[in-house]
Amino acid sequence: MKKSTMWTILVIVVIALGGGIFYATQKSNSNQVDASYNSALQAGKDAVADKDYARASSSFEKAMGIKKTDQARAYKDQADNMLSAISSTKAGQYDEALTSVNSVIKQNQGYTLLIKQGHKLKTTIKDVQDNYEHEIKPIFAAATTAEDGKQYLQAIDQYQKILDLPYINGRYYSKYKKQAEKGVAANKKLADQNNNGAGSTYNNNASGKNDTGNAGKTGEGAMGDHKVHGKTVTNKQITQLRKRVTKLGYDGMSFSPQDLIDLYRQSGRSKPTKITKADVENYLKP
C-alpha cells in the first residue's frame, strides 16, 4: 500500500474520531443543560405545591437562565401574578387582584396546578371583596359618622363590630383590623377628653357577639334556639345571613346572631341567600 494512501486513511480515521468525540461532548453538555433545566423547573413546581410563589418565581427564572423556553416563562409569569394578586387583595385593591389572578388562570402554556390554585384564589378574593363591601365598609362608614358627630363611644362600638367579625383575623383582613384597632384607641382617648362622648354609653363586652349563644330578641345572653331545618346554624351562615339582610337594604349589623337565626327559621328558606325583603319585613313586624 502506498504511503499516500495510508496517510489518507489515517487522516480520515483521526477526523472520524475527532467528530465522534466532539458529538459525544456536545451530547453530554446538552444532557447536563437539560438536567439543570428540569431540576430548576421541578424546584419551582415544588414551591408551587407549597404555595411559596416567591420561591417558585425564582426557580422558574433560574430555569429560564438555563434554557429560554416558553414553558419556563409562562410558569414564572403565573407565579408573579399570584404574588401580585395576593398583595393586591391584602391592600384592598380587589379589581387589580382579580385582573392578576385571571392572568394566572388564562396563561397560555400555564402550569395546571397554578391554574387550579388561581381558581381557588379568585373565589377567595371575591369573598373578601364581598365581606368588605357589605359588612366592613358600612361599619366604617357608621364609625365615621359617629366621629363626625363627636359620638366617640358610638364610634368605638362600630369599630368593635369589625374586630368581632369571625373572619377578621384572616390574612386578607389585617389592614381593616389595624384600622379598627386604631379607631378604638383614638376614640377612647377622645371620649376620655370629652366627658365620655357626650353621654353615650360604651359596653366593651363585645367579644362573642358572633357566638350563636347570644339571644337577640329573646334577651341579650339568653339561650335561644340555634337550629334551622334541624341543624345548628354555623358562624359562616350567620355571616351569610347578615350580608343578605344588608343587601336587602337593612342594617345587618343591628341584627344579633339570634335575630338572624330566628329570621332564617321564620322565612322557611332553604338557604340564607334566598331570604327576601318580604321575609325581613314579616320578621320585623311587632
Radius of gyration: 32 Å
Helix content: 55-70%
Quaternary organisation: single chain
CATH class of the domain at 29-122: Mainly Alpha
In percent, how much strand structure appears in the residues?
A: under 5%
**pLDDT below 50 for ≥5 consecutive residues: which ranges?**
197-222
Shape estimate: elongated
The helix-and-strand class reads mainly alpha
Work out the helix count.
Answer: 11
Number of strands: 2
End-to-end distance, in Å? 123 Å
Mean pLDDT: 84
CATH architectural grouping of the domain at 29-122: Alpha Horseshoe
Q: In order across it, which strands form the biggest sheet? A: 1-2
> Which series of helices and strands comes N to C?
HHHHHHHHEEHHH
CATH topology of the domain at 29-122: Serine Threonine Protein Phosphatase 5, Tetratricopeptide repeat
Q: What about the largest sheet?
A: 2 strands, antiparallel
Question: Nutshell version of this structure?
Answer:
With 286 residues, the chain is mostly helical. Helix content is 70%, strand content 1%.
Could you explain how this protein is built, in words?
The protein is mostly helical. Among the domains are: 29-122, Serine Threonine Protein Phosphatase 5, Tetratricopeptide repeat, CATH 1.25.40; 209-286. Helix content is 70%, strand content 1%. The chain contains eleven helices and two strands. The chain has helices at residues 3-49, 53-66, 70-90, 94-106, 112-148, 152-163, 174-193, 195-198, 235-247, 257-267, 277-284; strands spanning 227-228, 231-232. It has a two-stranded antiparallel ribbon. A hairpin with a 2-residue loop joins strand 1 (227-228) and strand 2. Helix 5 packs antiparallel against helix 6 and helix 6 (152-163) runs antiparallel to helix 7 (174-193). The chain is elongated, with a radius of gyration of 32 Å. The termini are far apart.
